[in-house]
Amino acid sequence: MKKKQTVLIVDDNAENLGVLGDIVAGNGYIPGFASNGIAALAAIKKKHPDLVLLDVMMPGMDGFEVCRQLKQDATLANIPIIFLTAKTEKDDVIAGLELGAVDYVTKPFNKKELLSRVNTHLELQATKEELREALATKDKLFTILAHDLGNLFNGLLGFSSMLAGKNARAISNAQKDEYSQHILKMANKGYNLLKNILIWSKSQTGSLKVQPTPINLLSLVRRNIELQEEKAGAKNIKLFSHIDENASVFADLNMLDTVLRNLVSNAVKFTLPGGEIKISSKKVNNLIEISVADNGVSIKAEDIEKLFRIDVVHTTTGTAKEQGNGLGLILCKEFVEKNGGSLSVKSEVGEGTTFYVRMPSISLK
Length: 365
Hints:
By secondary structure, this protein is α/β, with parallel strands linked by helices. It folds into three domains: about 5-110, 3-Layer(aba) Sandwich (Rossmann fold), CATH 3.40.50; about 135-210; about 210-365, Histidine kinase-like ATPase, C-terminal domain (Heat Shock Protein 90, 2-Layer Sandwich), CATH 3.30.565. The protein has ten helices and twelve strands. A five-stranded parallel beta sheet has the order 2-1-3-4-5, with helices on both faces. A five-stranded mixed beta sheet has the order 7-9-10-12-11. It is elongated and about 90 Å long.
């Protein structure tokens, strides 16, 4: 659902604030209010509105000074400002626009004209934000590809060169087996990375369609545990399933399979050797809650939101120096939400991390 846009109205006249607030709210936007320049700056820094309707003539700090200070702050400079003033002199209009305002409406204002300009600049702002997000997404994707594929090929070329090089005959059979295992692991990692990128790309372009079907959760969890047993065994990690045999969900099988595979793999990555991972389920109203809990490394509270953002570079090395790219968890959140569910995280120092997936349930009886 599209987020409602916010408009901060700044005017020292209470009657003007009321009238403008009604106009803004009546057009589907969320109004905010400030009666002076200092209060306006504080409100803008705290709430980051999508647009500011700014009166020029105010006691103390006038609108021009408010605009000047905002445009000097890199985190606020992109917020569009429309000046509201009784001034109609050409020099004043030019001065306001030179400070960085996007428009200038004179008082008394025409309601239709004001709304037209507000709508236009909010639409432009939304388009700019979408473009910024798209560019950030592209940059993150290229960063993942350049970093992860670079590391993979360095390793693949290094081990394969030793096996195929002039001194290959001097390598023992035990070393050859070891190098071959390294090559196989890196090839699998590259394949999984490519698979995740292709799936995510399809999701972004809308070509990946959700095809929900009734799914027996127990069999799907068992399959994903089997896939991770070798990797978990290498770290002496125990995997436990506490899934009700009758637990079932209504979701896209491939998407839910991808979610569970990534969450269990992620848990193995961040669980200390000798630790344990529990996959459980319980009924919550008309939903099935699937939890993947480990007793490994905790996640800082400020980093939890970053886990699901493609525009933020956030990767952490696993407890056995395993490398990741962060794309798996982003896929998980998108796929869960596409199926009408939700994904959340709880992490506490000393207790590990738990991912909660809530999906629509269905009876298979």
